[in-house]
TrEMBL record:
<dbReference type="InterPro" id="IPR027417">
    <property type="entry name" value="P-loop_NTPase"/>
</dbReference>
<keyword id="KW-0547">Nucleotide-binding</keyword>
<dbReference type="Pfam" id="PF00025">
    <property type="entry name" value="Arf"/>
</dbReference>
<dbReference type="GO" id="GO:0005525">
    <property type="term" value="F:GTP binding"/>
</dbReference>
<keyword id="KW-0342">GTP-binding</keyword>
<feature type="binding site">
    <location>
        <position position="21"/>
    </location>
    <ligand>
        <name>GTP</name>
    </ligand>
</feature>
<dbReference type="InterPro" id="IPR006689">
    <property type="entry name" value="Small_GTPase_ARF/SAR"/>
</dbReference>
<protein>
    <submittedName>
        <fullName>ARL16 protein</fullName>
    </submittedName>
</protein>
<feature type="binding site">
    <location>
        <begin position="75"/>
        <end position="78"/>
    </location>
    <ligand>
        <name>GTP</name>
    </ligand>
</feature>
<dbReference type="GO" id="GO:0003924">
    <property type="term" value="F:GTPase activity"/>
</dbReference>
Amino acid sequence: VGTNLTDLRLPRRVTVRELGGCMGPIWPSYYSECSALLFVVDASNPSQVSSSCIQLLSVLSAAPLASVPVLVLFNKIDLPCYMSLVEMKSLFRMQDIVSCATQPITMLETSARDGTGLADVLQWLRSALREP
């Protein structure tokens, strides 16, 4: 519980602030500082899909984030019980969300444990933050 800050060099310094799902009520206090948004979903926990989707919709509808690029990360693909990208897109109705959203949305599968997808996340960040 709390926020974690991590600095990345992409090559310029970028600060990543992690706010867990339980911190949802305070998320809006950080929206004005946000240049890009990474929204992480536990792809191994089907019981959290509906609450994650509601949180995502809430974030996407926030006025300060109307033009902020969004990367939805379906994480924990290293676990045998993970739901595939196709399944997650279907459960979240991502096609509908993307078509109604004002911001650009990208989706990736990742594993924070083994690093799968990390290079793609960094490349997305460079691009979203207009890095070469």
